[in-house]
Amino acid sequence: MMRGYFAVLWVLWLGGAAPAAEMATPEASAGGLEHQLGAADFRIYCATCHGIDGKGQGPVAEFMVLPPRDLTQLAKRAGGKFPADLIARVIDGRAEVQAHGPRDMPVWGDYFAAEKPSASQTLKEADARARILALVAYLGSIQAQ
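Predicted structure:
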């Protein structure tokens, strides 16, 4: 099982040379492995704040100072085109995103990398990148029409 997981990560990492916008199209990923991985991570790490449907109504939303964003409206807010590269940087959190404002959302890039303390730095980065791109692909697939 673990060997297959690393093989998938390797394929996703090699595919990571393409811009996130190309990798995050709903047509390319809906129902595929990347979409499933992104959906699973979304339910585990994002739904608490953003809600299982991504509309910002998670169980802890009412306790937050700034309400979580409705993630189904990202393309609409960006003029009709899903801003995959920006979303990847926001999720990663390690790159400064001026438009995001204060860093209220957890830094998932560091968190994903830290989940594998015995792995090499290269593998940690590859895993974090693959998981972020899978989340971006999933978010691209839930955009309101």
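Summary: The CA atoms of residues 9 and 127 lie 6 Å apart.
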